[in-house]
Specification:
- The chain is mainly alpha-helical and about 350 residues long.
- The chain contains 14 helices and no strands.
- It has one domain (about 5-145, about 230-330).
- It is globular, with a radius of gyration of 21 Å.
């Protein structure tokens, strides 16, 4: 990690501490400490195991995409990739650092950098498509739960969905209507040339067009491998379910057992969508706020709710940061040469 990333890491932990401290100020400390002594750590262990499985499934997805070019790519090497990606997603605004870090991690483990970029792109497309599909299902079956009780939060959920939908729509537009996508991009930059504030952005046109062409080439390869897409899609669906169900076991650890599992999955999916709107790394602040509102419907004791937020963030966020730092220090077992 460079100096800038190290500073970002310190800032992330500082922001997290400030948010938790602010939450603790609003509850009785003795009540909070009493709830800590009552935690069933077995269920926290299950929640941690699910996160490890979540990253393991993503590692398997990486292996699957590399099967043709790097068939001997080990699980040890593959498991490093999602952890490193989580680390850099966690310390960069809008999770922008994860993909570049993933490409570098693949490259340093022997994968050709062109192949690494291709794998990263394909994973991103599959993941985004299924995030949106999954969210549509959650909206259909669970949005009424939120809109009835949390009107303002429901606007954030819808806005998050719109943002992700636009991303997926643009990806599919490039894949299936490339000529139109080119015209839209060219027209956008032509418009920017006429706007004073937009002229500074025109210099990025060659880069954008190059990335557009690269994505189209990779998407063509994806369309030529339907079995690969089906397999990675099924793995991605499983990965999302495993991740979304984690808060259920956090609640069980706090002896909150009368909980609808499907409702937990829907609420967690909504929270993740809301977090994506916040420019602060990890959605710090927005994550805790949305969790307290939604899961506060299950937890009536203030001290227990703060503890639930604390445990949830440790398991789903800070654990990945720590393991990502470990993954950075672990060198690949061997160089894997790309097959010709």
């Amino acid at each position: 990690m460079n100096k800038k990333n190290s500073i970002s890491l310190v800032v992330v932990f500082l922001l997290g501490f400030l948010v938790i401290w602010n939450e603790l100020r609003q509850v009785n400390l003795n009540e909070f400490l009493l709830e800590v002594t009552k935690v069933n750590w077995y269920w926290i262990g299950v929640a941690i195991l699910l996160m490890l499985v979540h990253w393991g499934i993503e590692a398997k997805i990486t292996q699957t995409f590399l099967k043709k070019t790097n068939p001997e790519y080990s699980m040890k090497n593959a498991y490093r990739i999602p952890l490193i990606q989580h680390l850099f997603n966690a310390i960069t605004p809008f999770s922008t650092g994860g993909q570049p870090a993933q490409i570098v991690a693949l490259g340093t483990s022997g994968v050709d950098y062109g192949v690494a970029a291709s794998v990263s792109l394909m994973k991103f497309v599959v993941y985004q498509v299924w995030v949106v599909i999954n969210f549509v299902v959650c909206l259909v079956f669970g949005f009424q739960w939120v809109s009835t009780n949390f009107h303002k939060l429901s606007y954030l959920i819808v806005l998050g969905f719109i943002v992700h939908f636009i991303v997926v729509f643009c990806l599919l537009l490039v894949m299936f209507w490339h000529s139109l996508a080119q015209k839209i991009v060219t027209g956008t930059f032509n418009l920017l040339r006429k706007i004073k504030l937009g002229r500074r952005l025109v210099k990025y046109e060659p880069t954008v067009m190059e990335k557009l062409e690269n994505f189209y080439e990779q998407s063509h390869a994806m369309k030529q491998a339907p079995k690969l897409m089906v397999k990675t899609s099924l793995l991605t669906i499983l990965q999302l379910i495993v991740y979304y169900v984690v808060p259920y076991f956090v609640l069980l650890a706090l002896h909150i057992e009368d909980v609808n599992v499907f409702k937990v999955i829907v609420f967690h999916a909504f929270i993740i969508m809301i977090i994506s709107l916040f420019p602060i790394p990890g959605g710090t602040g927005g994550a805790e706020y949305s969790f307290s509102l939604l899961f506060g419907t299950f937890v009536s004791v203030p001290g227990k709710l703060v503890l639930a937020i604390f445990l949830w963030r440790i398991v789903t966020y800070y654990l990945g940061i720590v393991l990502g730092l470990v993954a950075l220090m672990v060198k690949p077992t061997k160089e894997i040469k790309e097959l010709s």
